[in-house]
Structures are given as C-alpha cells and as structure tokens.
Write a structure and sequence with these properties.
This protein is α+β, with helices and mostly antiparallel strands. The protein has helices at about 5-15, 60-70, and strands spanning about 15-25, 30-35, 45, 50, 75-90, 95-105, 120-125.
Length: about 130
C-alpha cells in the first residue's frame, strides 16, 4: 500500500518508521555500501535497506530489500540487533527517526549487483 506523500510527511513528523538495514558481505570479507540519493544521509555511504511494510516481518523485509535494491540472493541471514536512528535532516528544521533492525547477510561469491533508484552508486569495500 502506498501512502500519499502529504500524509506520509505528517506521519514522519510524529512517529518513528520501522526499517531494516543490510550489512551485506561476500566470501572474501567485503561489504556492499551504497551512496544514498535521499535524506536521511543523502550523499553518504550507507547500508542498503528500507522500510518494513504492513504485515511484513523484518526478516522478509530484509530479503525483499536485498533483491529490490541490489538484485542479490542471500546464502545466510542473521539478525544482529535493533537500533534507534535519530538523524538531523540538513537544511531543514526536522529530524528523521527510524527504528532499524540490522541484518548480516552473506551472498557468497555471487556478487554482481544492481542499484535501484534509492541510491546512485554502490561498491564492494574491504573493511579497514
């Protein structure tokens, strides 16, 4: 179900949004990061992920976002924890409040990915 933009903007001002973030790894230990198109964290490196839909479990949301945003399939999925993300939105007197569950997802050696319209760039990175 799609919520009309004006109504969704009102919802964002009064309540947190449930989300999932995906810490996607491959067999060589790299992590897939995306550059975000939208606030919060516009133009920053971030994990793929997004909102949990009504009647959708967080686990199923993580699998859906992996496929929708990256075109990847999981070999393993592990819930790492749930966290509050309260972030300022630059150039606005607003904040973004998400309650996100982080999932550690391994995709093995099948690392060819796509990028959806929520990001404008992505790449595999080796943790430093």
């Amino acid at each position: 179900m799609i919520i009309e933009k004006d109504l969704y903007d009102q919802i964002l001002r009064v309540m947190p949004i449930p989300c999932v973030d995906l810490l996607i790894t491959d067999n060589s230990g790299r992590v897939l990061l995306v550059k975000r198109k939208n606030e919060p964290m516009k133009d920053q490196w971030w994990f793929p992920g997004g909102r949990v839909l009504f009647k959708e479990t967080r686990y199923l949301a993580a699998c859906r976002k992996l496929h929708e945003e990256c075109g990847l399939q999981a070999i393993s999925v592990k819930e790492m924890g749930t966290f509050d993300l309260i972030l300022p939105i630059p150039d606005e007197d607003e904040i973004s409040h998400g309650i996100t569950t982080l999932f550690l997802i391994n995709v093995g050696d099948n690392t060819a990915f796509t990028v959806d319209d929520q990001s404008y760039f992505a790449e595999w990175r080796k943790p430093e």
